[in-house]
Design a protein that fits this description.
The complex is a heterodimer.
Chain A (H helix, E strand, L loop, with lengths): L7 H26 L14 H8 L7 E3 L5 H6 L4 H8 L34 H13 L6 E6 L6 H12 L4 E7 L2 E2 L2 E2 H4 L4 H6 L4 E6 L3 H16 L5 E6 L19 H10 L2 H11 L5 H24 L16
Parallel strand pairs in A: 1-2, 2-3, 3-7, 6-7
Antiparallel strand pairs in A: 4-5
Helix pairs in contact in A: 1-2, 1-11, 1-12, 2-9, 4-12, 5-6
Chain B lengths: L2 E3 H15 L3 E5 L15 H9 E3 L4 H13 L3 E5 L10 H8 L2 H4 L9 E6 L14 H5 L5 E3 L4 H13 L4 E6 L6 E3 L13 E4 L4 E5 L3 H14 L4 E5 L2 E3 L3 H11 L2 E8 L4 H13 L8 E5 L8 H4 L6 H12 L8
Classes of the chains: A alpha/beta, B alpha/beta.
Chain lengths: 325, 331
C-alpha cells in the first residue's frame, strides 16, 4: 500500500474512522430492516477508504459537499454518531433538528455543507464555496463528492469550466462504484470520465478507492497545491458499493451478480486491507484492533439507543427555519 | 428631489452596498465591461474590479449554483440573470438548493443571495424573452420576491435584498429601466412586506405589481374623472406579502381588482384574490377580479402582443362594471 500519513496516531484514526462508517451503516441498515427508521437510506459500506482518505487530508476549515450516499462523508468529516442517528430517526437533537434526514445531513461545525438528494446537485455549491475562498483570500479548499452517475449531469461541465477558468480551490471527487443507481456505469458513461475533466485543462487522477493510504497521499498533495492556487483537480476513485442503491434494493441480481459482490468484499475490502497492513507494519496488534472495533460497536449501540429514546421536534417547529432572520 | 432612472437606482443601490460590505459581489453574463445588455450595471467594474464584478460563461445553472455555495460560506452574491425567462434553466439551484438549505439544515445554513432578473412583455421580444415568472418563484417556500414599481422602490428594495439573510429574487420590468422617479440622495431602505398606498380612494381597490402599478394609476386617473375613487396599492414584495394592508383597503372599498403581468391562471393575482375572498368575504360587494397576462405564450407580432397584457382601459372597464354592481362573469 502507498504511504501517506507517517504518524501512528494518524493511521489508527484513519482505521477507526473507516470502522466507524461501516458500523454506522450496519446499524442504520438494521434500523431500516426493523422498520424503526422513517423513509430509506443509501449505504456507504464498501467505499470507506474514499471518504476517510480524502477527509483526513482536510481541516475543519475546509469544506465538503456530500451526496445522497453521504453518511461516510459526514462521519469522516468529524460528525458524532448521536446527532447523526437522531437525524436519521427525525429527532430534535439531530444535526438538522430532524428536518433533513439521511439525505440532507449537514454539519457546519466540521465544514460539511450537507448531503444533497439531487444527483450532482451540490456541484455548484462546492464550486461556489471555492469561489468565495478565492475572492476572500482564504486558503481553505472545498471537496465536491459525487458518484459516477452524477457525471451525466450538465451542471458539472458548467462549473468545471468556471473552476478551471478561475483556478478555484476545488477538488472534484468522483466515487465510481460501478453503478448509476440500478445501471452499470459503462451503460451511462461514454468514453473516459477522467478525460472529461482533462478537456477543461483540469489535472485528473484515477486512484484505487479501496486503498485508504493511496487516496490520502494523493489528496494531501492536491490539497496543498489547491491552497496555493493551483486548482482545480479531479480524482476518479474506483470503489464499490456493498449494498443496493438504497437499503430496499435487495434483490439486485438483474443488474449485478452475487459473485461480483463477493469478490469485492472478500478480496478488496478497504478495512480488511488496511487492518492487515497495520498489523504487518507493527502499528497495531490484532488484539488492539479488536478492542478498537468493540469500542466503536459500543459507541454505535449507545448512540442508536439514545436516538431511539430521544424526542421528536415539537410540532411548532414545522414552520420554523423557512426563512432566516 | 432629484430624479433618476430605475436603471441608475439599481446601479446606485448595488454600488452603495458593495462599498459598505466587502463580501458583496456581482456575477452573471456580461455584467462587467458590458454592464448587461440593458446597461444597468455600467461603471461598477471600473470601481470594484473584475474580481467583484465577475463575467461568467453562459451557464445559468452553474453560476447560480455557485452563488448558492458562496452565500452558504460567507459571501453575499448578487447574481444577474439576463432575462427572467432563464429562470427555468436554474430551477433546481434556486428552488431545490437555495430555497431549502436553511430549512433542511434546521436553521444552521443560510443563503444570503440576490438573484436580480427582469420581466415584462410588449418589447417585441417574443415568447422566450418576455415572460413574467414571479408566480413560479413565489410558490416556493424559502424564497422572497420583490417587484419594484419605480426607481424609488428599485433602490430601496435592492438594498434591503442585499442585506437580507435569505435568497431574494428581484424582478425588474425591462421596459421601465429608463423611467425616472424622485429618489433621495440620502440613504434609505424599503422594508420587505410593507405595501405602499400609491393613491387613496374609497370605491375600489386596485392592487398592482411592478409596471402594473402605472397601469393602475392611469386607470385610477380615468376613473376619477368619472367620479369613481380608486385606491392603488403596490405590495412591493409579493413574498412576504403585506396582507394586512390589502385587507384594510378592501374592507374600506369593498371591491378589488388584482393586476399582475404574469399569466392569469394559477398566478399572483389568483393568490391575492383568494386571500381577499377568504379574509374579507363579508366586506365584499363584488367578486374580486384578477387581471393577468393572457394564458398564451407571448406572441411576437405587436398586433397580438399588445392585447395579451392588462391595460388601463381594461382596468377601467372592469372597475366600472364592478362599481355598477354588474356580475360580469354571470353569463
Amino acid at each position: 500500500m502507498a504511504k501517506a500519513k507517517t504518524n501512528t496516531e494518524d493511521y489508527l484514526r484513519m482505521y477507526a474512522q473507516m470502522v466507524r462508517i461501516r458500523t454506522f451503516e450496519d446499524n442504520a441498515n438494521q434500523l431500516y430492516l426493523s422498520a424503526k427508521m422513517p423513509g430509506l437510506t443509501h449505504m456507504y459500506s464498501g467505499e470507506e477508504a474514499v471518504a476517510v482518505g480524502i477527509c483526513e487530508a482536510l481541516t475543519d476549515d475546509d469544506r465538503i459537499t456530500s451526496t445522497h450516499r453521504g453518511h461516510g462523508h459526514c462521519v469522516a468529516k468529524g460528525a458524532e454518531f448521536r446527532e447523526m442517528f437522531c437525524e436519521l430517526l427525525g429527532k430534535e437533537e439531530g444535526y438538522c433538528r430532524g428536518k433533513g434526514g439521511s439525505m440532507h445531513i449537514a454539519d457546519q461545525s466540521h465544514g460539511n455543507l450537507g448531503a444533497n438528494a439531487i444527483v450532482g446537485g451540490s456541484m455548484g455549491i462546492a464550486t461556489g464555496s471555492a469561489l468565495r475562498a478565492k475572492l476572500q483570500g482564504s486558503d481553505d479548499v472545498t471537496v465536491c463528492f459525487f458518484g459516477d452517475g452524477a457525471t451525466a449531469q450538465g451542471l458539472w461541465y458548467e462549473v468545471m469550466n468556471m473552476a478551471a477558468l478561475w483556478n478555484l480551490p476545488v477538488i472534484y471527487a468522483c466515487e465510481n462504484n460501478g453503478y448509476s443507481e440500478y445501471t452499470r456505469t459503462e451503460e451511462i458513461a461514454a468514453g473516459s470520465i477522467t478525460a472529461r475533466a482533462e478537456a477543461f485543462g483540469i489535472e485528473a487522477h484515477q486512484v484505487d478507492g479501496q486503498d485508504v493510504l493511496a487516496v490520502n497521499e494523493l489528496t494531501q498533495k492536491l490539497v496543498t497545491r489547491a491552497r496555493k492556487g493551483e486548482g482545480p483537480f479531479f480524482i476518479e476513485l474506483m470503489t464499490y458499493r456493498y449494498h443496493g442503491h438504497h437499503v430496499g434494493d435487495i434483490n439486485r441480481e438483474y443488474y449485478r451478480s452475487k459473485d461480483e459482490e463477493k469478490d469485492w468484499k472478500e478480496n478488496r475490502d478497504p478495512i480488511v486491507r488496511f487492518r492487515s497492513w497495520l498489523v504487518a507494519e507493527g502499528i497495531a496488534s490484532e488484539a488492539e484492533i479488536e478492542a478498537m472495533n468493540a469500542e466503536i460497536e459500543t459507541d454505535a449501540r449507545e448512540a442508536v439507543a439514545y436516538a431511539e429514546a430521544a424526542a421528536y421536534p415539537d410540532v411548532s417547529e414545522v414552520d420554523m427555519h423557512v426563512y432566516a432572520d | 428631489m432629484r430624479e433618476i432612472t430605475l436603471s441608475q437606482a439599481v446601479n446606485e443601490a448595488i454600488a452603495e452596498e458593495m462599498r459598505r460590505d466587502p463580501t458583496v459581489f456581482l456575477m452573471g453574463e456580461d455584467v462587467a465591461e458590458a454592464g448587461t445588455p440593458f446597461k444597468v450595471l455600467s461603471g461598477l467594474v471600473e470601481e470594484f474590479g473584475t474580481e467583484r464584478v465577475l463575467d461568467t460563461p453562459i451557464s445559468e445553472p452553474g453560476f447560480v449554483g455557485m452563488a448558492v455555495g458562496a452565500a452558504m460560506t460567507g459571501a453575499r452574491p448578487i447574481v444577474d440573470l439576463m432575462f427572467g425567462d432563464f429562470i427555468y434553466l436554474v430551477m433546481d439551484q434556486l428552488c431545490n438548493q437555495a430555497a431549502k438549505q436553511h430549512y433542511m439544515s434546521g436553521g444552521k445554513l443560510t443563503v444570503p443571495m440576490v438573484l436580480r432578473t427582469n420581466m415584462g412583455a410588449t418589447r417585441r421580444s417574443a415568447a422566450q424573452h418576455s415572460q413574467s415568472l414571479q408566480a413560479l418563484v413565489a410558490h416556493i417556500p424559502g424564497l422572497k420576491v420583490a417587484m419594484p414599481s419605480s426607481a424609488y422602490e428599485a433602490k430601496g428594495l435592492m438594498k434591503t435584498a442585499i442585506r437580507d439573510n435569505n435568497p431574494v429574487v428581484i424582478f425588474e420590468d425591462k421596459l421601465m429601466y429608463q423611467d425616472k422617479a424622485p429618489v433621495p440622495e440620502e440613504e434609505y431602505l424599503i422594508p420587505f412586506g410593507e405595501a405602499h398606498i400609491k393613491r387613496a380612494g374609497s370605491d375600489i381597490t386596485l392592487i398592482a405589481t411592478s409596471s402594473m402599478v402605472q397601469v393602475a394609476e392611469t386607470a385610477a386617473e380615468m376613473l376619477g374623472r368619472e367620479g369613481i375613487g380608486a385606491e392603488v396599492i403596490d405590495p412591493r414584495t409579493i413574498v412576504p406579502l403585506d396582507e394586512a394592508a390589502l385587507l384594510e383597503s378592501v374592507r374600506k372599498t369593498s371591491r378589488a381588482i388584482v393586476i399582475d403581468e404574469g399569466h392569469q391562471s394559477y398566478g399572483v393575482t389568483a393568490e391575492i384574490a383568494s386571500r381577499l375572498n377568504e379574509k374579507a368575504f363579508y366586506h365584499l360587494d363584488a367578486p374580486v377580479l384578477r387581471m393577468g397576462a393572457m394564458d398564451v405564450p407571448v406572441p411576437f407580432s405587436p398586433a397580438l402582443e399588445d392585447i395579451t397584457v392588462p391595460t388601463p382601459e381594461g382596468v377601467v372597464e372592469n372597475a366600472r362594471k364592478l362599481c355598477a354592481g354588474e356580475m360580469i362573469h354571470a353569463a
